[in-house]
Design goal:
With about 450 residues, this protein is mainly alpha-helical. It folds into 3 domains: about 30 residues; about 180 residues, Cytochrome Bc1 Complex, Chain D, domain 2; about 210 residues, Orthogonal Bundle (Cytochrome Bc1 Complex, Chain D, domain 2). The protein is about 30% helix and about 5% strand. The protein is globular, with a radius of gyration of 24 Å. The chain binds heme C (2 copies).
Length: about 450
């Protein structure tokens, strides 16, 4: 309303200046924008209720989740030797309690990783195999990760805790840490905790003992893990009811973190101001880029809706190139494997640890999902240090050039590319890049991107 009034006043003033007479009383209708562009308008409404998490929108959980997001004390030991304590690493191999969510989803950098060496894939306990995605607007996604491996943010967070590339921890250690560090906060939300200090029922692990260690065997290197299902040790040895209690505490911890993550938004951009009628919000190149995005660029075929993603999985024919420490996964089958794994996931939202089903899991794995990855959202992305699931493209110019040539020639990636050659001119390509820059928003409020009072940064 205020913005409309200001616009009307501006129009009246400019009409007076151009001497067009006395008809300035009725504000003119905003210039019509193509419907295909209006469909990309930012959606400022809160994300849909998450039925799988009853604390998802609880203000107490949000504030608690913010603390946990920045807290490295739920993580186990660093495994990879590239963790040598030098710039960009989180510590030295063997040290525990170094990795927090904020260590890779760096809040001050729009929740992507600008910290790890090389600014491509992330170095947690070990190198991740794919690039850390942005968390802004993530609550709007039905499935998570580049490959759709999870159907909830909390399921993803438990996966991170038990993943030996990220936290390298386990649910037994996480639950006992929560008991020692955050019992009052936890009980205020979920009621009494199990007696996690009773080491006869819940084996006590030091931070260095949590998670996995790499061991050499006759048939090569393998992992020996402690404090999680399948460990053949501390966790598997507990009574089933105690295993369940530990899992519940860890899942609830992850649900608290989700409550914070759901608040992370990019916010409206200059493009949205232009859609709302402000002709000056985009320069000529950005306006041409917007037209190309829905026109000759065919971008909107996949990058549709308010976050410029169809939330589906596509094969764009990316031949993996070495990144960071010469890491490549040339046979990453993407969503074909991710969706299969999700259907078997005991932490899926139709399971026992969920408060309700999100109904997002496809019944079957379509063959077209081989080599397909989730269409990334395009808001708040221009400052990212690298692009694509592999992080092998360093600039938006390279990304647009990649799409323009219809992806890489077949042969070095699984599946079949859906892209076709566009043959855009150099000017058209730079217009598209300019348009992508006009999708930046203000990002989350300052009090969300910093650790809450008194907490330490990772
Ligand atoms: C070591 C780096 C690292 C850490 C630490 C980390 N993440 Fe991530 N995160 C990633 C990577 C890499 C992916 C993508 C994984 C994939 O697609 O295979 C990801 C994916 C996600 C996603 C899915 C995003 C999307 O668009 O689909 C969410 C949500 C998420 N992480 C939340 C968290 C939370 C919460 C924590 C802390 C509990 C955390 N992450 C800690 C690297 C990290
Ligand atoms: C067939 C569907 C499809 C079309 C058409 C398409 N994209 Fe994409 N785009 C994707 C997918 C899928 C990815 C991620 C692929 C990967 O990482 O393997 C992607 C990645 C991107 C990225 C990198 C984002 C990031 O976070 O890494 C940008 C930028 C982008 N596309 C812009 C465009 C533009 C501009 C156009 C039009 C010229 C376009 N896309 C057309 C599916 C598509």
């Amino acid at each position: 309303m205020g913005a409309e009034l200001r616009l009307a006043v501006a129009v009246v003033l400019s009409c007076a200046a151009c001497g067009s007479g006395s008809e300035g009383n009725t504000p003119p209708a905003p210039p019509a924008r193509p419907t295909a562009l209006s469909a990309l308008h930012y959606d400022a409404a809160p994300p849909d209720v998450d039925p799988s998490n009853r604390v998802a929108d609880d203000p107490v959980a949000r504030a608690f989740g913010q603390r946990l997001f920045f807290d490295p004390s739920l993580s186990g030991p660093l495994i990879e030797g590239d963790n040598d304590g030098s710039g960009g690493t989180l510590g030295v191999k063997g040290q525990a309690g170094r990795v927090s969510c904020a260590g890779c989803h760096v809040p001050a950098s729009g929740y992507v990783d600008t910290r790890s060496p090389h600014h491509q894939i992330s170095l947690g306990a070990q190198w991740t195999t794919r690039r850390t995605p942005v968390l802004l607007e993530v609550a709007f996604a039905p499935l998570y990760n580049w490959d759709g491996r999870r159907d909830s943010i909390w399921g993803q967070a438990v996966g991170v805790m038990e993943g030996n590339r990220e936290f390298n921890s386990g649910r037994l250690f996480v639950a006992t840490q929560m008991f020692h560090l955050y019992r009052a906060e936890y009980e205020a939300l979920f009621g009494a905790m199990p007696p996690l200090d009773d080491a006869t029922r819940f084996p006590a692990l030091t931070p260095e003992e949590a998670g996995c260690v790499e061991v050499e065997t006759m048939s090569g290197a393998t992992y020996q893990c402690r404090g999680m299902p399948g460990d053949g040790a501390d966790y598997d040895g507990m009574a089933p009811a105690d295993q369940d209690a530990v899992t519940r505490v860890t899942v609830n911890t992850a649900k608290v973190i989700e409550a914070y993550v759901r608040e992370l938004r990019c916010g409206p951009s200059r493009f949205d101001a232009w859609l709302d009628g402000d002709d000056t919000a985009l320069d000529a190149s950005e306006q041409r880029g917007a037209a190309l995005f829905i026109g000759a660029g065919k971008c909107v075929d996949c990058h549709s809706g308010p976050n410029l993603t169809d939330e589906k999985f596509h094969d764009v024919g990316l031949s993996p190139a070495p990144v960071a420490v010469a890491f490549t996964d040339s046979n990453d089958r993407g969503a074909a494997d991710g969706i299969d794994a999700l259907r078997q996931d005991p932490l899926q939202t139709s399971g026992a640890y969920s408060d309700g089903d999100r109904h997002a899991i496809p019944a079957t794995t379509d063959p077209s999902l081989v080599g397909a990855f989730r269409t990334p959202p395009l808001r708040c992305l221009s400052s990212h240090p690298s692009f694509m699931h592999t992080a092998q493209l360093a600039t938006l110019d390279e990304v647009v050039a990649f799409h323009d040539r219809g992806g890489d020639p077949p042969g070095n990636y699984p599946g079949q590319s859906e892209l076709t050659r566009l043959g855009l001119t150099d000017e058209q390509k730079s217009d598209l890049v300019a348009f992508l820059g006009a999708l930046d928003g203000p990002g989350p409020a300052a009090d969300l991107v910093a650790p809450p009072g008194g907490a330490t940064t990772p």
